[in-house]
């Protein structure tokens, strides 16, 4: 099965369309809006983007993060059509996974047209696992952040597990954090890959408070090193949710790459799990 690493490397349960959580320290407001990374529905989006978005909306998802596909950043839709489709369904396009490549100017222009506030580089633009390479990448990220900021966009980076390897006694993800400008590079922390990398997300919330405006909320089967339904893996989701403020998170995107049955059934389970918290 193709995972994100290798890729770049029916109706609703909630009649109100909104997931309302009790007041238990998760959020300062009554309503917690959850999003989804559309890579979770990659095959479905490629076949029927509008129909799949409608199905996603029906289970209470309120925010969307797109991902690159063979049909472009918006699964064959124009940026404007993607924006309208989400709005018509009561959702909003908040972010998109992209590459930092020679087409980045066009990528930024598409993001502006779509109305999304964030562009997230979804994988290391160069894979040298050295302190020197990560410093070089940090410079590229700062430049991309400057370019995005001029257009009213936020630029960020999404980790996997390999960033938590060490070189010369330094954790490479920490090198990236220490050499990127917090005003220009907004990190999207994939909590599942953090624990696969042998680290604790809470340590990063403490060390770099407020630097993670986006999350990928992903439970992980640590034996298979792959994603699973919430509550079936090793991530302490309840504890993570209780430390949102420390992380600075504004948008939480659920992502699941492998499934016991179908993406929609897994996502229904995940939403019910969050509701039960």
Describe this structure in words.
With 277 residues, the protein is α/β, with parallel strands linked by helices. The protein has 12 helices and 12 strands. An 8-stranded parallel sheet has the order 5-4-3-2-1-12-9-8. Strands 6-7 form a two-stranded antiparallel ribbon. The chain has a two-stranded antiparallel sheet with strand order 10-11. Helix 4 (79-88) packs parallel to helix 5 and helix 6 packs across helix 7. It is globular. The protein starts with a helix and ends with a helix.
Mean pLDDT: 91
Helix content: 25-40%
What topology, given as strand order, has the largest sheet?
5-4-3-2-1-12-9-8
Helix/strand structural class: alpha/beta
Low-pLDDT ranges = 6-30
**What is the count of helical runs?**
12
Sketch the major β-sheet: 8 strands, parallel
N-to-C SSE series?
A: HEHHEHEHEHEEEHEHHEEEHHEH
Strand content: 15-25%
Quick one: overall form?
A: globular
| Terminal residue distance | 31 Å
- Count all strands and give the number: 12
Rounded radius of gyration (Å):
18 Å
